[in-house]
Structures are given as C-alpha cells and as structure tokens.
Amino acid sequence: MADLKLMKGNEALAEAAIRAGVDAYFGYPITPQSEVIEYLMSQQPEKRTGMVVLQAESEVAAINMVYGAASTGKKVMTSSSSPGISLKLEGISYLAGAELPAVIVNVVRGGPGLGTIQPSQADYFQSVKGGGHGDYKLYVLAPASVQEMSDFVADAFDIAFKYRAPVLILSDGLIGQMMEKVVLKDEKPRLSNEEIIKQYGSWAVTGKKDRERNIITSLDLQAEKMEARVHRLLKKYGQMEKEDLRYEEVHCEDAEYLFVAYGSSARIALKAVELAREKGIKAGLLRPITLFPFPKKQLFKLADQVKGMLSVELNAGQMVEDVRLAVEHKVPVEHFGRTGGIIHTPEEVLEALEQKIMNHGSIRHHKTRESGILQN
Q1: Which residues, at least 6 apart from 129, have a Cβ–Cβ distance to it below 8 Å?
Q2: Which of 118, 163, 165, 299 has the maximal Cβ count within 10 Å?
Q3: 91, 117 in Cβ contact below 8 A?
Q4: Whole-structure pTM value
Q5: Which tens digit of pLDDT belongs to each residue from 238-279?
Q6: Strands 290-292 and 139-141
Q7: Closest CA to 160 of 176, 142, 146, 140
Q8: How confident is the model over 104-133, as a mean pLDDT?
C-alpha cells in the first residue's frame, strides 16, 4: 500500500524499485550511493517480490549483468556514483546500441578523478552528451527531492520500455543523502514470464518456441545496416523531445530575470527567487526535469521576455552551454557554480544574479564564504 515515510533519497529510490516490480538490481557500493544496495539487501526483496539483488564484483560486471537480464525483457536496474558510472559507460553504450530498456542511477560526487564524496553536478556533460562511445543519447531525469527520487523510478521504467532504451536518473550526493517525507507508491507485482513473452516477445530473448529467434546485439559490420540502426535511434530521440519533455516553471509569468537550475541547485535557486522577490527583483526559475530532452523551446520563448539568465550549477559550467545554445544570443546568459563539494547558498546565487546579469557583467568576480574568489 502507499504510505508516508521519512527516508533518505537513496533509500526511497531503493524502496521504489521494489514497489515498481523491478526484477533485478546489480550494483557495487560507492559513496554517496551505497545506501541503495544496502537498503535493498536489508529488505530481502527476494522474499517480498522475488526481486534479485546482487553485489557484482565490479561496476563493469554489474552493467554487463544488466545487459544480459534486460535482453530477456526483465525490469533491470543499477546504480553508482561518478567514477563508477565512468566504468559502466561501455556497457551503457552497448545497451543503447542493442535497444535494451534499463534504468541507471548516478548519485553524483565531485571530481575529476576520485575527487570527493561530497555532492556535485559535474557529470552533466557525461550524462547528456552521450558519455560513452557512438551516436546515442540517454533519456535523463533529474530529481530535486526525495519524493522525486522515489517517483522517478517507475517513470524511468515506463520511458525505458516505451522506447526500448536505457534511462538515467541523475541525482547527486545532496539529494541522495538528505531525509524528507516521501509518499511511497503502491506495490506492483512483477510481470510473469508469460506476461513478458506477451508484451516483449517480439524482441526479447524469452525462448525460441514457435517463432524466429530474437538476436540481441549492438554489432552491425555492414555500414549500411549500422547507419540504419543509428537513424532508428535518432528517430526515438526526436520522439522523446516531442512527447516526453519535462520541466517546471516558477514565477516565470512576469519574470524579468531567470534562474535555470536542476536537481539540488534548483532547490537553492528557488529560495534565491524568493529573496529576489522580497527585494523587488522579478526573478523566476526554469527547472529542467529532463536534461535530455532539454527544454530548448521554452528557454527560447522566455528569452523574449527576460533581460538575462543565470545557470546555477554545482560545477564549473556545463549546462550553461545548452542554455546559451537554446536562447541563441537573445539575452546574456551567465553561470554561477561551486565545486569541490561546496554547496552554494541562496544569498550567493542572488548576489551572482545582481553582479553578473543585472550589472551587465561589469563586476566579473565576487567573494564567497570559503574560497575567496570564484572564477567566471
């Protein structure tokens, strides 16, 4: 039954996976997402629903287990944090190329390298620009609350099976570790093998029986066939943009200045909007909920209304590039971010808007409470 609980983001996501009727989870512990596999192990879902939970010997092993299980039409999931996702990228590219539905969760930590275990949004490029090799995209959901960490699991699987494509839930160490109230969805039963054959037997490896065999592969040695496969993928990505784009607008109807932020940065930017409004500054927030597809048309439209935009991110400047491309030089677009695991405050975000946008960039640097001077 649906119920209300106080949970960590990682725990809420794990519980949501059990309730969504997920067949298997293959993962490997890494901070700050280790609670996902720890919670799953503690709940013994094999007794509740029959769900398989396995700690693989490595991230590479985990993603290849996902590939194998997904090829049978099962609901399969994995999770990791930044360096672990890097190790999974070859397998993720194989999933995309073989057109297999699966859900991957990245609870982002600071980098590059081993970096820090503190929150970051520095995996934006990796997530929305492909990350692995070849011409592919991931449908990327960016939760901004523990509730969305829970809700997006079922949503991600719906999208994954709609398009036969891997889906990424891009969280971060702040959302994964924070505790909030969450309303958990009702538990769905796992599909039986017979139901899987009925729904996905046209492509899944479910036993040959009285039909032609299904072959799961991302390999096409003939150039013409490989090009046709890529064009088929591109058609799916175009359909995602038309049918499954998601974003949220806050106080955009009369906004003269716009924050653009996702995930934990959107929560902070939302408070900055309130502070700005208290000072008489008509600020608004556009929160991309899907990072791919990205709300390009809405940003282009808002660029006719506002005087400038500030992309607020926990990185050195990544999503800001897509914001600038979207508005096509109609208005100034600047970036404000913190790195190294430092989380910006609403006051810093508002100060950056005033200095970088409202003063037309005349003040190019400003002081911050820890590091003194922040680069552009």
Answers
A1: none
A2: 299
A3: no
A4: 0.94
A5: 999 999 999 999 999 999 999 999 999 999 999 999 999 999
A6: antiparallel
A7: 140
A8: 96
- Domains of the chain, earliest start first: 3-193 (3.40.50.970), 247-373 (3.40.50.920)
Cβ–Cβ < 8 Å for 365, 373: yes
Q: Which residue has the tokens 């029986």?
A: 209
Nearest to 106 by CA among 91, 94, 119: 119
pLDDT band of 212, cuts 50, 70, 90? confident
Measured distance CA(114)–CA(147) in Å, rounded = 29
Q: Is the pLDDT of residue 367 over 60?
A: no
CB 288 within 8 A of CB 277: no
Q: Tell me which residue of 236, 257, 374 sits closest to 316, measured CA to CA.
A: 374
β-pairing, 24-27 vs 52-55, is parallel
In the chain, at which residue ranges do the beta strands (DSSP E only) sit? 3-8, 24-27, 52-55, 76-80, 102-108, 139-141, 166-172, 179-184, 247-250, 257-260, 283-288, 290-292, 308-313, 333-337, 367-368, 372-373
Q: What's the sign of the alpha-carbon dihedral 83, 85, 87, 93?
A: negative
